[in-house]
Amino acid sequence: xxxxxxxxxxxxxxxxxxxxxxxxxxxxxxxxxxxxxxxxxxxxxxxxxxxxxxxxxxxxxxxxxxxxxxxxxxxxxxxxxxxxxxxxxxxxxxxxxxxxxxxxxxxxxxx
Length: 111
Prior knowledge:
Number of helices: 4
InterPro entries: VapC45_PIN-like
Strand order of the largest sheet: 1-2-3-4
Largest sheet: 4 strands, mixed
Oligomer: single chain
Number of strands: 4
Domain VapC45 PIN like: 15-64
Radius of gyration: 13 Å
Pfam families: PIN_10
Protein name: VapC45 PIN like domain-containing protein
Shape: globular
Order of helices and strands: HEHHEHEE
């Protein structure tokens, strides 16, 4: 069991439709102060999603390799976990970070 709660976008209890635009669910989870870990680069590229992150003080980490095997995504997350916790404790929201396949954590330009 991880030392944190995990919520999935697709869980019915969260009430998010599969086709809900990123900016809408990001606004909800950012207001709840949830930390988002995703492999969806659209959060990085979509201006409406970025605006929701900025407006509601979102905290986003996205893993490179959306089409990579689940084990590779898990490896990236495990490698970055301690750095993610440090960033969350030290940096004021909003922010978006990219976790690369070569184990780097890069801040996406200032929001």
